Each structure stands twice: as structure tokens, then as C-alpha cells.
């Protein structure tokens, strides 16, 4: 059984050796050597080899004849092949000989083909390189010509279009490396030109503003009813620039490539203020920075620099208030600044916007108002203030034409109007004082009709009676009246001049003028009149003339009302219209002059009374032996001459002529009362301790002289003995003592019909006390004479009764 299996295994191994690749026979042979039947396998293997040899031998025997036939045929073919080889060699030699010229031609053709290919390649490369070189050359020319925006466009095209097509050449690499440097150079150069432009417009903003203001002034003078159109101020170049900048992208390319700065105004006649400025540096720089992607950087820089310039422009000079030229230069610079900004606003897209310009204007407006308030407060010349007002109005109208709100400026002008009014009042105060100082306070003599008409044209005098009088004649007032009236009208004109162009209604102007005129009348003119009245060495005649002058000025107030209404076209009866206070002003001045007359007259009387030298202890004398005191004679003479001056004043036929009579009556009554009061005070003077009956008789003689003066009627108009009433107190007192009528006084005291009704018991008691001292001294000196003793007892008894009377009434 084992032998069968061994035989089968060996058979399998042999089949595997026959069918397996030689490289994989190792494991099969290893299995043979690992087994125990190695010899038996070798026998099997030898038997299998012998079988295969027999099969090979059978196969060869079967095909041997065919092999032999094939060898025979091959030998035949070899001969033919030798012949063919010889023929081929001969043909080849002939062909080689014949093809030598063709090979040369082919080699030449090949070379030509290579050259042609190289030429085509070169032409193609040059086609891409030449535009690069041409564009770079153009770039260099543009840089030399300072045409930086086209240069930047060329640079952009060169970098993004031409260089990528040209390929990697050394010159292209150099160009690519130079492109950032050229961009930086263009950017820096454009910024330098912008700085030059900003510096130039800062220096020439004065000229720019002056031109804009002149154009606004011309426009307003041509047609004040048409709103000023600021866009019309843009000249031909400005319109071209505006068209160019609005045509594309970020404003298009700049029209001009000229240097920045202010153009020569005389080089070309241009109608607009902006044509003085070449804005191309701004446009150019804006376009360049836009292309570079740095537009925001440029906008921020431009606005920052312009804000700095605005602060410089808005800073006024410390001495600006001294001359109008200082204000004009200040306004010109501001207008120039905002004209430039307005033009940039309307010719660029987004470089500055309306909010930015309005913010700058708000800043400027606050600083302008503050500066004008400060500097105008230093001004004391009304002409300069008026010129400043006109300049501010023109400044405001110019900027308003560009769309800037200017209401604050007009509000400030109303504030300055108050200051202007105060300055006018100061000037007119000096004028009125000069007129008063130069006035002779006497009626104006008129010799001819021409002179009369000249004065009546200056002052509205309406006096039919005076017109009937023949020449020469005198006007009732002095030179002060027509001059003052004319000056009041000049003041009204000055107020009207300031109110012009302030966009006020006629009613507002009328109200402002009336209020200012009231201040002139109630404060300035009133103070000047008081100054003239209170001035030293003013005579009574001058004071009376002041009264006459103020009366005529008072009557002229309604003419001033009509004058104001005529120039303002506002009827005087308009509701809520301010009325002139001239009537009360002149009445107050007249009353002050009257009071000064009375005060001066009384002061003069006091000077005479200071000369009174009574001998209070003089002995009693007969009345016929006493004479009036010298001081009183002089006083009466002075009063007569004074009141004759009052009486002889002109103007009797008209209403105001009654005024001197009234003043004279009041002055005369006041003088008499003052004399009586002063004589009474002399009697009751505490320093006078003793009074004799002789002194009373002397005083009685002086009083009679005064009464004689009063009775003579120094001033017409008194009824009966009205003037004597001024001396009635003193008269009754002296009668009581000189007549020694104490029984009547004591019996009738307190009755309405009392003879000595005006004698005060206190006054009588004081005088009796002084007489008692005199009687006591006389008793001692007279060694107790019976008559003196009786008189002393009588005085004591009267004193006792007076004291009882006073005590009763007091109780």
C-alpha cells in the first residue's frame, strides 16, 4: 500500500517538475530529498527522461526531410542574396554620388528654416517688447514734462498689460523694480505741488476774496432785487474744469498741467474770482491718489491742512480795529478761503462735502462774531463803525450768495448798532457843547430877506407877526437853535445810514431811529443844556435866552416827527410807533434854567446882603433922620436893572413871549421873598444877642425902601399889591415892635381878622428876648432911671404873656 502511495507521489512530483517554472522547482526537489524513497524517485526520473528522449527522437525523424529541403533552398537564396547585395552596393554608391548636391541643398534649406524660425520668434518677442519700451519712453517724457496723472496711467498700463506680455527679460525686471519707485515719486511730487498750491492760496486768499467781494458789490449795484448767483462767478476756466472733473470716474483728468498758484489777473480778462486760481494741482493730486488707492489719505490730508489754514485766516490782527483796511483784509481772506472751498465742493466729487464746509463755516462764524465784537468795542469813530457795517453787509451778502447762512452776522450788526448809537451820542455831545460854547445867547439879528429865509430854512419858524415886522429885525432865539436843529437832523441821517442794507422793515428802521433820537434828546442834548445852564459866569439874560431857545426847540418836535416819517415812509400815527420825548426834555431844561435864574438871582442878593452892617445897639432916632442902608440902595438898583432886562426881551406878540414875563414875575417874587427872609434871619441870627429899638427903626426904613420897590412894579403883570405880600411877615413884625401894639396882638391872636396875623409868637418872643437884654444893660448904665425900669417891666410882662400864649396853643 505504501509503495502505491509513493509511486503516486513521485508521479505528482514529476508532473509538477514538468509543468513548473524552473525558478520555482526548488521546493519540489526539497520534498524529494526530505523523503525516504530518494533512489526510487531517481529511477522514476531516469525512466521519464528516457521516455521523453524517445518522443524527441520520433519527432525529429518525422520532420528531418523538411529540414533538409529548407537548407537546400536556403543555400540557393544565399547566392541570390550575394548578387542582390552587390547590386545594392553599386546602387548605393551611385546614389551617394548623385545625392551629395541634394544633401548640401537640404543642409542649406535646414539652416534657412532655423533662421526663419528664429526670426519669427524674434519678431514675436519684439512685438511684445517694443510697446513696453515705447510706453516706458513715453512715461519718461511724461515725468520730465511733469504730466504726472497721464504718467501714472501709463505706469499702470505698463505694469498690468505690457510687461506680462513681454516676458522675463532683464530690462523688464529693471522696469518692474522701478515701478514702485516711480509711483512714490509721482505721489510725492503731486503732494509737493498740492502743498505749493495750499501755500499759494493762503497767501493770495486776500486777493481772491477781494475779487469775489467786488463782483458781489457790482452784482448788487446792477440789480439789487435779483439774488446773487455765485455760480456765475466761475469763469471760463472754472467751467471747463468743472466739466472735465464731472465727466468721468473720480472727476476725470485735470485740464491744466500748469504749476500751482494764482494766475496773473491781467493776463486774461476773466469774470470770476475763481479764475484767479489754478485748481489743477488739487484735481491732479486727487486723481493720482485715487489711482493709487489712497483717496481717503488725500482727503484727510487736504481737509486737515485747510482746517489749519482756516484757523490762521480767522485769527485777526491785534491792531485790526485801528483802520478799515485791517477789517477789509480780514474779510477778504475769509471770503477767499470759502470761495476756494465752495469751488472745490462743486468741482470735485467727495473731496469736500457739504457737511465739512458747513462745519468750517460754523467754526468761522463763531470766531468772526467774537472777533468783531471784541475789536469793534475799541472803535470810537462813528464813520469807521459805519464803514465797518457796510463792509460786514457786503461780506455777508457775498457769502450768502454762495449759500452760507449769515443771520448771525446781521444779528451782530444790530448789536454794533447800539455801540454805534453810543459813539454818535458822544460825538454829538461834543458838537452840542461846541455850539453852546460858541453861542452868544442873544437874539439873531436879521437885516435882509435872504438872511431871514436862510435861518427859516434851517429851523421851522412859524411866526406871522414876526414876518410882518420890517427889516432889520431880530429872531427870538439865538444861533444855538437852528444849529442844534440841523445837528439833530444830521444825527437822524447818521442813524438812517446805519440801518440801510440790514434787511429791516421800514417800521423797524423807524423805531430804531426814533429810539436813538430820544436818547439824543433826553440824554445828550439835555446834559449839554444842563451844562450850559450850570456853567459858571452865566448871566440872567443868557439863562432867559436858554428858556426861549428850549421853547422854540420844544415847538419844533412835531417837525422832527414828520421828518423821520418822511425819510422812513412810516406814518407818524402808526400803531405802537415810538414817540419823541423832546417836549419833556426841553421842558425840563427850561425848568432847570428858570430854577437857575432864581438861584443865581438869590445868590446875587446874598452877596449884597453880606454887605449889610447894622448897628444893633444904635440908640433910637427920629424916623426922618434915618436913611436907607447903602447895601440896600445898591441891591434895589441892581434888581431894577435886572428886571428891566427881563422886561425888554423880544417876542411880546407871540405866545412864547409871555414866558419872559412869567419868569420875571416869578424871579421878582422870589427875590422879594428872599430879601424878606434874609432880613428876618438877620433879626433872628443867634449871634445877634441884643437888638435896640433904634436898630429896628433902621431896619424899618430899609423895609420901606423894599416895599417902595415892590409897589413901583419892577415887573409888569402883578395884580394890586401882590408883590408886597413877600414882605408882609417882616412888615407886621416891625409894626408890632415899633408901634408896641402888644395889647392888640395878644387880644386878637388866633383870629382871622387879627392885625398881626403873620407874626409868629415864637419869632416875637425871640426878638423880645434880645430887646430885654438890651434894656437890662441900659438900666444898669442909666443908674435905674424910672422910664427904663418901667420899659423893662413891660417887656418882662409881654414875654410872660407870650410864653403863656405859646404854652396854651401847644397844649
UniProtKB/TrEMBL annotation:
Q: Ranges for the Exocyst complex subunit EXOC6/Sec15 C-terminal domain?
A: 408-770
The record's InterPro entries line, in alphabetical order, gives: EXOC6/Sec15, EXOC6/Sec15_C, EXOC6/Sec15_C_dom1, EXOC6_Sec15_N, EXOC6PINT-1/Sec15/Tip20_C_dom2
- Residues forming the Exocyst complex component EXOC6/Sec15 N-terminal domain are 44-213
One GO BP annotation of this record: Golgi to plasma membrane transport
Q: What's a single GO CC term here?
A: exocyst
Q: Which domain of life is it from?
A: Eukaryota
Q: Where is this region: Disordered?
A: 233-262
Family in the record: Belongs to the SEC15 family.
> What function is annotated for this protein?
Component of the exocyst complex involved in the docking of exocytic vesicles with fusion sites on the plasma membrane.
Question: What PANTHER family does its record include?
Answer: EXOCYST COMPLEX COMPONENT 6B, SEC15
**Name of the featured protein:** Exocyst complex component
Amino acid at each position: 500500500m505504501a509503495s502505491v502511495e509513493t509511486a503516486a507521489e513521485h508521479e505528482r512530483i514529476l508532473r509538477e517538475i514538468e509543468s513548473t517554472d524552473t525558478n520555482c522547482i526548488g521546493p519540489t526537489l526539497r520534498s524529494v530529498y526530505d523523503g525516504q524513497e530518494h533512489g526510487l524517485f531517481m529511477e522514476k526520473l531516469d525512466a521519464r527522461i528516457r521516455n521523453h528522449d524517445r518522443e524527441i527522437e520520433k519527432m525529429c525523424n518525422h520532420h528531418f526531410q523538411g529540414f533538409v529541403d529548407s537548407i537546400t533552398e536556403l543555400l540557393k537564396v544565399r547566392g541570390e542574396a550575394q548578387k542582390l547585395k552587390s547590386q545594392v552596393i553599386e546602387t548605393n554608391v551611385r546614389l551617394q554620388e548623385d545625392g551629395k548636391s541634394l544633401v548640401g541643398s537640404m543642409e542649406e534649406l535646414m539652416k534657412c528654416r532655423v533662421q526663419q524660425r528664429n526670426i519669427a520668434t524674434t519678431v514675436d518677442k519684439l512685438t511684445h517688447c517694443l510697446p513696453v519700451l515705447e510706453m516706458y519712453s513715453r512715461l519718461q517724457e511724461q515725468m520730465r514734462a511733469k504730466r504726472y496723472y497721464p504718467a501714472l496711467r501709463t505706469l499702470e498700463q505698463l505694469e498690468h498689460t505690457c510687461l506680462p506680455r513681454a516676458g522675463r527679460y532683464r530690462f523688464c525686471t529693471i522696469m518692474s523694480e522701478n515701478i514702485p519707485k516711480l509711483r512714490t515719486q509721482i505721489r510725492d511730487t503731486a503732494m509737493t505741488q498740492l502743498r505749493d498750491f495750499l501755500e499759494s492760496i493762503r497767501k493770495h486768499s486776500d486777493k481772491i476774496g477781494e475779487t469775489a467781494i467786488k463782483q458781489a458789490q457790482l452784482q448788487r449795484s446792477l440789480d439789487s432785487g435779483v439774488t446773487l448767483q455765485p455760480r456765475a462767478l466761475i469763469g471760463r476756466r472754472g467751467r471747463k474744469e468743472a466739466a472735465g472733473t464731472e465727466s468721468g470716474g473720480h472727476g476725470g483728468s485735470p485740464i491744466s498741467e500748469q504749476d500751482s498758484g494764482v494766475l496773473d489777473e491781467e493776463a486774461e480778462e476773466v469774470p470770476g474770482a475763481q479764475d484767479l486760481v489754478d485748481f489743477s494741482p488739487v484735481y491732479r493730486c486727487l486723481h493720482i491718489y485715487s489711482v493709487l488707492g489712497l483717496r481717503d489719505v488725500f482727503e484727510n490730508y487736504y481737509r486737515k491742512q485747510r482746517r489749519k489754514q482756516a484757523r490762521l485766516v480767522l485769527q485777526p490782527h491785534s491792531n485790526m480795529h485801528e483802520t478799515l483796511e485791517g477789517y477789509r483784509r480780514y474779510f477778504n481772506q475769509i471770503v477767499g478761503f470759502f470761495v476756494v472751498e465752495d469751488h472745490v465742493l462743486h468741482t470735485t466729487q467727495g473731496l469736500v462735502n457739504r457737511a465739512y464746509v458747513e462745519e468750517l463755516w460754523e467754526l468761522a462764524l463763531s470766531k468772526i462774531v467774537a472777533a468783531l465784537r471784541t475789536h469793534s468795542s475799541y472803535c470810537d469813530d462813528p464813520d469807521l463803525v459805519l464803514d465797518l457795517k457796510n463792509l460786514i453787509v457786503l461780506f455777508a451778502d457775498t457769502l450768502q450768495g454762495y449759500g452760507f447762512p449769515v443771520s448771525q452776522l446781521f444779528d451782530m450788526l444790530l448789536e454794533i448798532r447800539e455801540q454805534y448809537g453810543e459813539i454818535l451820542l458822544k460825538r454829538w455831545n461834543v458838537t452840542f457843547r461846541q455850539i453852546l460854547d460858541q453861542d452868544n445867547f442873544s437874539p439873531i439879528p436879521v437885516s435882509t430877506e435872504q438872511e431871514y429865509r436862510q435861518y427859516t430854512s434851517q429851523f421851522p419858524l412859524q411866526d406871522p407877526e414876526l414876518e410882518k415886522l420890517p427889516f432889520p429885525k431880530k429872531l427870538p432865539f439865538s444861533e444855538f437853535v437852528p444849529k442844534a436843529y440841523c445837528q439833530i437832523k444830521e444825527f437822524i441821517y447818521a442813524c438812517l445810514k446805519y440801518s440801510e442794507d440790514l434787511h429791516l422793515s421800514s417800521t423797524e428802521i423807524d423805531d430804531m431811529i426814533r429810539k436813538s433820537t430820544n436818547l439824543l434828546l433826553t440824554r445828550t442834548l439835555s446834559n449839554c443844556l444842563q451844562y450850559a445852564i450850570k456853567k459858571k459866569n452865566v448871566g440872567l439874560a443868557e439863562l432867559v435866552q436858554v428858556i426861549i431857545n428850549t421853547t422854540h426847540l420844544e415847538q419844533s418836535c412835531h417837525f422832527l416827527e414828520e421828518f423821520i416819517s418822511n425819510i422812513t415812509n412810516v406814518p407818524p400815527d402808526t400803531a405802537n410807533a415810538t414817540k419823541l420825548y423832546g417836549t419833556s426834555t426841553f421842558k425840563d431844561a427850561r425848568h432847570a434854567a428858570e430854577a437857575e435864574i432864581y438861584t443865581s438871582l438869590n445868590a446875587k442878593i446874598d452877596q449884597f446882603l453880606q454887605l449889610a452892617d447894622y448897628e444893633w445897639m444904635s440908640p433910637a432916632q427920629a424916623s426922618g433922620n434915618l436913611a436907607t442902608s447903602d447895601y440896600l440902595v445898591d441891591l434895589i438898583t441892581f434888581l431894577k436893572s435886572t428886571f428891566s432886562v427881563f422886561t425888554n426881551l423880544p417876542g411880546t406878540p407871540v405866545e412864547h413871549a409871555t414866558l419872559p414875563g412869567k419868569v420875571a414875575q416869578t424871579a421878582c417874587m422870589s427875590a422879594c421873598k428872599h430879601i424878606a427872609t434874609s432880613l428876618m434871619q438877620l433879626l433872628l441870627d443867634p449871634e445877634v444877642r441884643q437888638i435896640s429899638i433904634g436898630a429896628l427903626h433902621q431896619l424899618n426904613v430899609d423895609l420901606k425902601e423894599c416895599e417902595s420897590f415892590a409897589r413901583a412894579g419892577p415887573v409888569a403883570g402883578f395884580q394890586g399889591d401882590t408883590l408886597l405880600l413877600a414882605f408882609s411877615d417882616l412888615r407886621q413884625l416891625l409894626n408890632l415892635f415899633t408901634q408896641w401894639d402888644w395889647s392888640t396882638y395878644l387880644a386878637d391872636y388866633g383870629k382871622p381878622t387879627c392885625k398881626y396875623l403873620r407874626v409868629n409868637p415864637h419869632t416875637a418872643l425871640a426878638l423880645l428876648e434880645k430887646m430885654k437884654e438890651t434894656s437890662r444893660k441900659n438900666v444898669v448904665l442909666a443908674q435905674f432911671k424910672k422910664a427904663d425900669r418901667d420899659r423893662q417891666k413891660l417887656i418882662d410882662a409881654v414875654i410872660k404873656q407870650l410864653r403863656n400864649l405859646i404854652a396854651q396853643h401847644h397844649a
